[in-house]
Fold this sequence. Notes:
Low-confidence stretches of chain A: none
Oligomer: heterodimer
Order of helices and strands of chain A: HHHHHH
Order of helices and strands of chain B: HHH
Number of strands of chain A: 0
Structural class of chain B: mainly alpha
Number of helices of chain A: 6
Amino acid sequence: xxxxxxxxxxxxxxxxxxxxxxxxxxxxxxxxxxGVFLLGVAASFLYFGLAFLAVAQxxxxxxxxxxxxxxxLMMVRRGDGDRLVMEVRWDWAxxxxxxxxxxxxxxxxxxxxxxxxxxxxxxDGGAMASVLLGRYLPAFEIAGALLLVAVLAVLVIVGRGxxx
Amino acid sequence: xxxxxxxxxxxxxxxxxxxSRKDVIGVLIGLELMLGGANxxxxxxxxxxxxxxxxxxxxxxxxxxxxxAEAAVGLALLIAAFKRTGRSQVGxxxxxxx
Lengths: 164, 98
């Protein structure tokens, strides 16, 4: 696949997934659109030559968070027949705020991208490990500790709910 | 430039979902959209800025870890709140008590 086609495929995946999340009323369609967006994020990492990050995105998000969302949907939603419908409130203030933020981001960051030529890079696992376990070891350790705290917090929150 | 517009659109779409959805799960998915768009933009900017791929990848991995932790805690809070109160919509949580 040529780099241009791959680049536009990434853009289409990202935007169509996000648009699907905005427009979907049915919970399963919303989750599937979210999955398409997550695949787009992984594809964008792959496009920039960051294969490890793309695989991590697939494993953690598509394989983990998406399944968690599906479990939560099954537990929380009370279905109307076979379809799980979510209520959408078309709020003009929200639409105006979101549009303004989008325009602001594009306006502020456009100069940074003026000279950009999208070119795939390359990174191997060994080089990344030396960066993570060398220069960024404190940040790596803090991220690991944060994950541990998150796991404990989840266990405490859900466990406390059972006691009542 | 196209990827900047796409990421900004994704961030805006996430913000709209956060502000307009009534279900907590919808709000969480909107937050994940915002974080995903920001992460792609961060990685793109690092690549454009001439950072080496290993540093870019490490930075992206950190954001990914934070976002995954946030999603896990958010969903756990939702399930715990639903088990206690039987509610799952943002507007139904009028009071916060221990």
